[in-house]
Design brief:
Layout (H helix, E strand, L loop, with lengths): L8 E3 L11 E7 L2 H11 L4 H4 L1 H5 L10 H14 L7 E9 L8 E12 L4 E9 L5 E10 L6 E3 L11 H9 L8 E6 L4 H12 L3 E7 L1 H11 L7 E4 L3 H13 L5 E4 L4 H8 L13 E7 L7 E4 L9 H17 L6 E5 L10 H14 L7 E6 L1 H5 L1 H6 L12 E3 L3 H14 L3 E7 L5 E2 L7 H18 L8
Parallel strand pairs: 8-9, 8-11, 9-10, 11-18, 13-16, 14-15, 14-16
Antiparallel strand pairs: 1-7, 2-4, 3-6, 4-5, 5-6, 12-13, 12-17
Helix pairs in contact: 5-15, 6-15, 8-9
């Protein structure tokens, strides 16, 4: 007899209810997160299993499951289906005939082979078959049958989110695969973090740094912390202000395609960038975008402006949005969904951000902002949660699916971005747009992941700029 399982209850079968030939089955598909979760739980970090690059060079040429993942499914059938709750595993002998690969669907079957009345032990034949009908695991399991009948409500397991920032970083870095490193002017890298960040990006093949600052100081920092400057170019200047001016000059002369802030103050660098006489202005307002990969959100999200424009006007918001939309195109979002944020989702004459949102949406309808789908005002929950949007009766292609969040001002934007980074473990990259070249604004608190991620998007933009994709004159 085939034992069927109830959707909402677990039911055990005592020894006297079981007969030779009775069986039960379970079907599971192997996902990438299953491999990671099993590795975390067991501590088995064998690179032949979890590391794609290492696995490619091994016997199976791809990521496979831990052998005991399949064995654990057998235990799942025995403990939850047949015989069910109260079953005690006594012995198990398994043969692993084939690897289980990502995407494989495994049917696990246990069938009663022998029964021993004197101790109420049962021996099961166990088999795991993949979607192609191939046996991947087979063997036997000996159990002690439940001593008493148990019927209990099935407990729903909690949702688990794997926050693997390194894996998300590698996914982002892969976007620049095949692109030549760009010449990046690193402005005044005169502390450990700013110098190390530039060298790490160079090691990742993203940039060819031009280190601009007092050469003795740069070399002293490298020597103190064991950093290899190799053959990286150093432009010797006396102080931070001269570093900023020299960096802008290199850009204007075509000797570099991007800027990275070092240990000087942001205002000092940006003063040279926005100089009307010799800066890097274009027809666009300069603005900042955070690109954030949040583990609990199903798509990358852009937040603008959280670093440059303190209290942008309606006209300035047009430029901020257009900069972000154009950037979204470069990273592969063909028609980004733009949510214009406020505290509420209705237009309120007393809240200026709601009036701006309504005007910006109408400007998009009239072609004054192009390339994206705009909606607003939207509160943050309505922008990122479909459930919240439905609850409030918001019918919109943007609500709950936003890819660009346009904040009312710098304060609110900075708070949102930092909360996602520090409380939601978001992978964060930041870039300044609207100038002739992309500008990476680093902070002393930035992690190595943030610095490298920012260089990735600077590289993508610089290559796009060669085709005049993001540099309006």
């Amino acid at each position: 007899m085939r034992i069927e399982t109830h959707q909402h209850f677990l039911e055990s079968r005592i020894f006297d209810e079981i007969h030779i030939g009775d069986s039960s089955s379970l079907v599971r598909s192997l996902r990438a997160e299953d491999v990671k979760l099993f590795a975390i739980m067991s501590g088995d970090m064998n690179p032949a299993i979890g590391d794609q690059e290492f696995a490619n060079s091994g016997m199976f040429r791809e990521v496979i499951a831990h052998g005991m993942w399949s064995a654990s499914l057998i235990s799942t059938v025995l403990g939850t289906q047949f015989p069910g709750p109260g079953t005690v595993l006594v012995d198990q002998a398994l043969h692993f005939a084939q690897p289980v690969r990502l995407g494989d669907t495994i049917t696990v079957t246990v069938m009663v082979k022998q029964m021993f009345v004197h101790n109420q032990h049962i021996i099961f034949d166990c088999s795991c078959i993949n979607q192609d009908g191939m046996q991947v695991v087979h063997g036997t399991a000996e159990v002690l049958a439940p001593a008493e009948k148990v019927i209990t409500k099935r407990v729903n397991l909690p949702d688990i989110t794997i926050s693997d920032k390194f894996a998300r970083l590698q996914t982002l870095v892969s976007r620049a695969k095949g692109l030549a490193p760009i010449d990046m002017a690193v402005v005044h890298p005169c502390d450990l973090e700013s110098l190390k960040g530039a060298l790490m990006a160079a090691e990742a093949g993203l940039i060819d740094p031009i280190l601009i600052g007092p050469e003795p100081k740069i070399r002293a920092i490298a020597a103190e912390f064991g950093l290899d400057l190799k053959q990286h170019r150093i432009v010797n200047v006396k102080h931070s202000h001269e570093s900023a001016a020299m960096a802008v000059t290199l850009i204007r002369n075509g000797d570099a395609e991007a800027l990275m802030k070092g240990s000087l103050h942001t205002d000092e660098l940006m003063a040279e960038v926005v100089s009307r006489a010799a800066g890097l202005r274009t027809a666009r307002r300069i603005s900042h975008v955070f690109l954030m990969d949040v583990p609990t959100y199903p798509r990358p999200i852009l937040i603008t402006d959280a670093a440059i424009n303190i209290a942008p006007t309606l006209e300035e918001k047009v430029h901020i949005i257009q900069n972000a939309v154009d950037f979204a195109h470069i990273i592969g979002i063909a028609e980004p969904k733009v949510a214009i944020l406020s505290a509420v989702e209705t237009v309120n004459p007393k809240i200026q951000s709601t009036l701006d949102a309504a005007a910006l949406c109408k400007m998009a309808d009239r072609g004054q902002i192009t390339g994206g789908l705009l909606d607003g005002p939207l509160a943050f929950d309505n922008a990122v949660s479909i459930e919240a949007a439905k609850t409030k009766g918001i019918n919109s292609v943007v609500a709950g699916r936003a890819e660009i969040l346009v904040v009312p001002d710098l304060e609110s934007g900075n708070m949102v971005a930092k909360q996602l980074e520090y409380l939601a473990n978001a992978l964060t990259a930041g870039i300044v747009l609207g100038a002739k070249v992309p500008i990476v604004l680093t902070s002393r608190a930035d992690t190595a992941e943030t610095r490298i991620a920012s260089c990735v998007i600077a590289t993508l933009i610089a290559h796009a700029n060669r085709n005049n994709a993001l540099t309006p004159e």
